[in-house]
Every structure is written in structure tokens, then in C-alpha cells.
Amino acid sequence: MTKRLLPSTLAVAALAATVMALPQAAQAAEQPDFQLPAPCGETWSATTYSGHSPQYSVDLNHYPGDDTGRPVVASAGGTVEVSGNSGGWAGIHVRINHGGGWTTHYAHLSRTEIAAGSTVQAGQLIGRVGNTGNSFGAHLHFEQTLNGVGQRPVFDGVTYTGGSRTFTSANCGAPETPAPAPVSAVGDLTGDGKPDVLARAGTGDKTLWVYPGLGNGHLGARIDNGGWGSIDQVSGVGDITGDGRADVLAVEKSTGKLWVYPGQTNGHLGARVDNGGGWNAMRIAGGRDLNGDGRGDLLATEEETGTLYLYPGQSNGHFGARVAIGSNWDAMSTVSATGDMNGDGKGDVMAVEEATGKLFFYPGQGNGTLGARVEAGSGWDVMSSVSGAGDYTGDGKADLVARQNNGDLWIYPGLGNGQFGARIDNGGGWNFDS
């Protein structure tokens, strides 16, 4: 009799063990506290349509106006699995793993602001709205998935079930964390004939510092240029004010205005010159003379179209009518108008291709156009900033300044043929603009 009851007893025990295990399995896949992937307090419109793939995907727009360049933030904390150009329908995208099988996907971005492998918090800046991949207007394509299967998106405990509706972001657990503003090579701002470096540091006011070049591949003691927390982009440029000194460009966050700050000879900047609005739709890359008129020019990539424009510098702190000089430049993660990299006396351009991590050299023709590109190296996708403004090593050849994702700063000596010698270490901690 005992032998007949034993299997039943085992079955009951096994069933009890299974029932006891169920809460643990459910807990492992517990849904994170997902929030709207937009900065705290912003109101966005959600829409979808029949056949939207993957299932339950949602398109988000801030409106009114063009959303290109608007901040996209992490819906919940996690680890960035993918960040870059998909080469497919998603365009430039970010995917975050939140644990327990949960992921979120942010597609059609104009650019990413975070590297794969990074740990992010809810509310941290990860990218910018764009129109890349299979997209027909700037918007954010957003997905929440569990074990690879699309789920109905949840924002602050409210499930989006379709149709057109608005959500106001309660994603306020962490302040928007801007990616480090590019460390920018700039011409001589200290009056010693050597190019310098610009960088911002700290929270809130974000002090702008000028680091004097020493002419040996290293940098001297930094010079405080006050709070620049209102500025989105900063770049060095040649002389466009007619005083023979290098100047600085900046795009203001709130207005989208481009400002020119005249360089002095003491590491400080003069009264800024207003160059109008609309520049928050552009990714600027100021540089040396590209059209042969002896003045610094401005390169800028239009986020929505990927068109590269040349804005010829004048001698009054302003720019002339822009000229389109290339397409598909949104495929480049960094672009810099540099000094003469190949020894022909003309300003050139260096750019890192996002999909491959390759560094390309584009020889300037001296008339505002660029020649056929030449590969100058691979593995440059580990660099968050690449720029050039002249000779940092004292050998008469133009060099590159590059900041690695881990915060290390390197100077790459130019060889005068579009290639580079052994890099020079300028220490860590250069990803401090957060």
C-alpha cells in the first residue's frame, strides 16, 4: 500500500515545488518601471498603425515643429546593448537591456549620445530624435520587449493601447545627463603661436576651459572661461572676425542660435556675435580655411538630410551663403574640419564612419570642395571626439586631438600624408562634462 501511495506523494510534492517556484519565475521577469523616453515634464504624442512592426511599436513626437535633435532619454535603467547605425530599417538606434528579459529599443535617431556597454539610469540622455533608416519624418520609434517579444508600451504605469494620445513625461528620477561635449581642437587663443584645446567640465554651469598647447604634444594649465551650461555644441574655428586670431563657435540650447566668440590672446573670449537661429538642427564642425580665402570656415551636417554644408567665414564674425558639398554625412559619428593634413597647404577634413569605426581623410581642394576620401585607420569608434586645428607637436605638421569613450585624451601626430604616428597620452578624466 505504501508502494502504491508513494508515486502520488511524489507527484504532490513535485506540484508543490512547481507552485512555489512560480512566484520566483514571475519575479525574475518583473516589468521595470518604464517611463516616457523624454525629459521630465515634456508632453509627447503617441501614435501607431496597423501592421506596425514589430508588434506594439509606438511612434513618438514632441511637436510642434521639427523634432530633429530633441533629446531621447532612457525609459528605465539598464545596460546599453547596441548604440550606432543599424545599416537597416532602424537607422541610428539604441537598445537597452533592463534585466529579466526586458529591453527597450529607440530607432531612427539622428545620433547616439551613449556607447554600447554603458550603464544608464532612467532619464539619462542616450540619443537625439532623427529621421534615419526607414523613416519618413523625424520621430522616435520606441519598443518595449520581453524575451524578444513586443509588449504594449507602459509609461509611468499607463499602458498605451493604440490610437493617438499624449503622455507627459514623469521620467524625473535622474536629471537629463548630457553626453560629454566634444573636446575641441582650436587655434591659438593664448597668443603663443600654438593651437589649444577647448573642453567643458562640471554640472550646471559647465565651465569652459582653454588648455594651452605646449608644442610637444601635451597641454598646459587650463584657463577658466566661465559657465557654458546654456550651450549645446562648442567648436573651434579659424579667424572669422578679421583680427588675426582664432575664434570659437557655440550653439545655444534654448534658442538654437549660433554665436561666434572672438578669441583674444590671453586664453579668454570677447563679446559674442549673433549668427541667427535654427542651428540646433545642425551638427557643427568648425575649422580652418577650406575655400582658399584665408578665413576660417564652418562645416555643418544637417541632421535630417545628412547633407554636409560649407559656410564660408567672413571677416566680421558672420558667414556667407552655405554650399552643399556632400551627402550621407549622417553616417559619420564625428566630423572635423582640420588644418593641412597632407602637406599641400589646404585645409582638410577628417571623419569617423559610425558603422565601421574607420577614420577617413578627405583632402580639401582649396575651393570649398573635398577630394576622394582615403582610409586613415580603423578602430576609431572608441573615440567620442575627434578634431584638429594645427600643429600640436612642433614638427610643422597638423595633428589630431581625440578623446576616447573612457575619458582618455590622445594627440595623434600627423605625418604630412594624411596618416598618423604613435599617439601621445594626455591623461584620463576628459569625459567630465556630465
Give me some keywords for this one.
434 residues, mainly beta, eleven-stranded antiparallel β-sheet, four-stranded antiparallel β-sheet, 33 strands, 37% strand, disordered N terminus
Overview of the structural elements:
This protein is mainly β and 434 residues long. The protein is 6% helix and 37% strand. Mean pLDDT is 86; it is low at 1-28 and 175-179.
Q: State the shape.
A: elongated
Strand pairing plus helix content: what structural class?
mainly beta
What's the β-strand tally? 33
Mean pLDDT figure: 86
Sequence-ordered SSE layout with sheet pairings:
Layout: H1 2-28, E1 43-47, E2 58-61, E3 71-73, E4 78-85, E5 92-99, E6 102-112, E7 119-120, E8 125-129, E9 140-146, E10 149-151, E11 154-155, E12 158-159, E13 165-168, E14 184-186, E15 196-201, E16 207-211, E17 223-227, E18 231-237, E19 247-252, E20 258-262, E21 273-274, E22 282-286, E23 298-302, E24 308-311, E25 323-326, E26 332-337, E27 349-353, E28 359-362, E29 374-377, E30 383-390, E31 399-404, E32 409-412, E33 424-425
Antiparallel strand pairs: 1-2, 1-13, 2-9, 3-8, 4-5, 4-7, 5-6, 6-8, 6-9, 9-10, 11-12, 14-15, 15-16, 16-17, 18-19, 19-20, 20-21, 22-23, 23-24, 24-25, 26-27, 27-28, 28-29, 30-31, 31-32, 32-33
How would you concisely characterize the structure shown here?
6% of the residues lie in helices and 37% in strands. The chain has one helix at residues 2-28; strands spanning 43-47, 58-61, 71-73, 78-85, 92-99, 102-112, 119-120, 125-129, 140-146, 149-151, 154-155, 158-159, 165-168, 184-186, 196-201, 207-211, 223-227, 231-237, 247-252, 258-262, 273-274, 282-286, 298-302, 308-311, 323-326, 332-337, 349-353, 359-362, 374-377, 383-390, 399-404, 409-412, 424-425.
